[in-house]
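User: Could you go from structure to sequence for me? I need the amino acid at each position, not a summary. Structure tokens:
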């Protein structure tokens, strides 16, 4: 563990002042540099993809591994690293894909804005570095929604089947005793951690002076602090670690931990600035036709296309938006849609690109008329002297000061029975009725949705009803870094479903996203319950002590449910940047794309998906920690299969 820590620190220090990660002989930029063929080809050099590449290349030193990544290798600072003011992130820190969804009719035609990583490291190199996991009930729900057809599988994706991979995927470093005592950090290494992988999480040596204000407020609202929230039990007030190096406070991401830190490795190649166009089965879908060819396009060389041969497997790890587009361009998707798009159908798989989910929500906003004498506060960053010292502190070893904080380490996670004790049973009953009464569920999905996807959605509604009825399964998240004057209501388990589709004018362009937020009207009822719960913070003794005055939605708007619903529709953030679930792990009869072994339904083998698109349901957390665990588990599944006699 010590050597892994020192090695990763050395990597972090070596890139701290540069524009890119160290280059290695494994880095490839054009087709002429590639081998004649590879055993494993991984589509996408992101969080899960690089995890798989690292584990396969280590487990099979005589087998070759190629990662194909659209982006380039570049240094990935934290979103609040210098020279920002911390009060606002740097939108140009690393390359990103930026999307605006189609207009959402149910939310006054507003569009969702989503940014994902376009660089080696993927979204782990571009995200907010909030490193939490879902509760045990989130992952148990993945197994539950799979139904009796998937339950007999020896590959388990429930909490007990995932916890070992969570622990393996990250090295957690305990804060120094003085820092832990100063801020009240708590943790449980044995219950949640123990790994030695050079993907790091830790608590920073800094918090804003007024961070405890909301913590006191939540306790006055009846929420209980938890010692550790990454061990499966999460309802209450949580400390959440940050995905950063414990010494330098630089971002820790898969491009560092699963590529740079493991080089040189002679069987591990990385091809950058190239797009995977499609996969092709030249021998058709015969039982022993082998893995598909991978058609690759140069991003910078006039779109030159060429084939790369995989001898063992192709693993698509391109993320919730790009994994389905690769499959769709390959002719794997809804047959009716593919015909309309002019793509020959290889496999009729209606679930590809369906089932899109993301966190969203409105907020409560206030001002203090009797602010406390706290120091330091975020507005101190406007003082050139304070900011200069903060920058100096960040560049010291070990790092200190505001820039080590990233976006904060605190959040509440609250179940629906605690959010709305008087009404949650009625909400749960309504969700169950959607799954059982006529065509109600289908009416909330896109027109002409395949019956298999409808059947799977009904199962999802039943599973979600169970989650919402569980007093230990969070329904609401509110993160914070200081008392600020705002509290956002993350709706953790949405009922609405969107789609990812090819651009009809250019199939190689970025996909078209239809988020369809609030297309299931019960989502609005859940948002309403969350918002009414958060408004109660303004009636606590702590908020009264500081003279908190509500700015929005305000007492007048909150006087009626209809007015508050209108406020939600007008102001809610449509994406908290956690898209998932567009190649779900369900049976083919229920709109699934992969099984528990992650093999794509209907293929003769040799093609799997390993990223957050495989989740059937959105978890109640930010996604990067789970994406690492998915990559770890996927790698173990593949290693076990290819370690058997005969391979």
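Assistant: Here is the amino acid at each position, in order:
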């Amino acid at each position: 563990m010590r050597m892994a820590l020192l090695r990763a620190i050395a990597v972090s220090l070596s890139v701290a002042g540069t524009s890119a990660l160290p280059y290695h002989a494994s880095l490839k930029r054009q087709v002429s540099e590639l081998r004649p063929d590879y055993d494993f080809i991984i589509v996408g050099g992101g969080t899960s993809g690089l995890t798989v590449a690292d584990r396969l290349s280590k487990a099979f030193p005589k087998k070759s591994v190629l990662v194909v990544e659209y982006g380039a290798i570049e240094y990935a600072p934290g979103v609040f690293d210098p020279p920002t003011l911390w009060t606002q992130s740097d939108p140009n820190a690393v390359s990103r894909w930026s999307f605006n969804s189609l207009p959402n009719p149910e939310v006054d035609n507003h569009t969702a804005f989503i940014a994902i990583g376009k660089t080696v490291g993927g979204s782990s190199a571009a995200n907010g570095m909030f490193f939490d996991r879902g509760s045990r009930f989130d992952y148990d729900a993945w197994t539950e929604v799979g139904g009796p057809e998937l339950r007999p599988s020896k590959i388990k994706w429930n909490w007990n089947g995932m916890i070992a991979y969570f622990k393996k995927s990250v090295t957690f470093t305990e804060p120094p005793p003085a820092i832990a005592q100063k801020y009240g950090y708590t943790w449980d290494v044995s219950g949640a951690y123990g790994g030695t992988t050079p993907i790091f999480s830790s608590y920073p040596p800094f918090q804003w002076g007024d961070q405890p204000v909301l913590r006191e407020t939540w306790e006055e609202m009846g929420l209980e602090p938890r010692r550790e929230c990454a061990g499966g039990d999460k309802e209450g007030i949580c400390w959440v670690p940050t995905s950063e190096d414990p010494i330098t406070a630089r971002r820790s991401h898969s491009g560092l931990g699963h590529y740079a830190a493991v080089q040189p490795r002679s069987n591990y190649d990385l091809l950058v600035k190239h797009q995977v166009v499609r996969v092709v089965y030249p021998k058709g879908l015969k039982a022993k036709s082998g893995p598909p060819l991978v058609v690759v396009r140069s991003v910078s060389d006039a779109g030159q296309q060429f084939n790369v041969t995989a001898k063992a497997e192709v693993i698509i790890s391109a993320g919730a938006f790009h994994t389905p587009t690769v499959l769709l361009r390959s002719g794997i998707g809804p047959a009716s849609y593919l015909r309309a798009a002019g793509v020959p159908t290889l496999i009729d798989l209606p679930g590809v690109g369906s089932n899109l989910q993301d966190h969203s929500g409105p907020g409560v906003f206030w001002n203090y008329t009797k602010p406390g004498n706290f120091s330091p506060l975020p507005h101190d960053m406007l003082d050139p002297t304070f900011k200069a010292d903060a920058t100096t502190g960040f560049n010291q070893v070990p790092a200190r000061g505001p820039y080590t904080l990233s976006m904060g380490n605190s959040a509440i996670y609250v179940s629906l029975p605690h959010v709305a004790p008087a009404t949650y049973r009625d909400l749960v009953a309504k969700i169950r009725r959607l799954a059982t009464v006529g065509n109600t569920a289908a009416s909330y999905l896109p027109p002409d949705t395949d019956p298999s996807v409808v059947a799977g959605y009904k199962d999802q509604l039943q599973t979600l009803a169970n989650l919402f009825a569980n007093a230990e399964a969070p329904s609401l998240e509110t993160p914070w870094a200081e008392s600020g004057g705002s509290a956002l209501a993350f709706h953790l388990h949405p009922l609405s479903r969107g789609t990812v589709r090819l651009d009809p004018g250019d199939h190689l362009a970025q996909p078209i996203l239809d988020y369809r937020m609030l297309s299931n009207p019960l989502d609005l009822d859940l948002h309403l319950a969350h918002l009414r719960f958060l408004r109660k913070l303004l009636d606590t003794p702590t908020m009264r002590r500081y003279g908190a005055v509500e700015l929005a939605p305000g007492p007048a708007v909150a006087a009626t449910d209809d007015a508050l619903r209108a406020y939600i529709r007008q102001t809610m953030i449509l994406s908290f940047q956690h898209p998932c679930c567009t190649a779900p792990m369900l049976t083919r009869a229920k709109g699934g794309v992969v099984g528990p072994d992650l093999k794509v339904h209907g293929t003769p083998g040799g093609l799997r998906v390993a990223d957050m698109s495989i989740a059937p349901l959105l978890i109640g957390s930010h996604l990067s920690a789970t994406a690492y665990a998915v990559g770890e588990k996927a790698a173990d599944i593949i290693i076990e299969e290819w370690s058997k006699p005969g391979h």
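One structural detail worth keeping in mind: The chain is about 30% helix and 15% strand.
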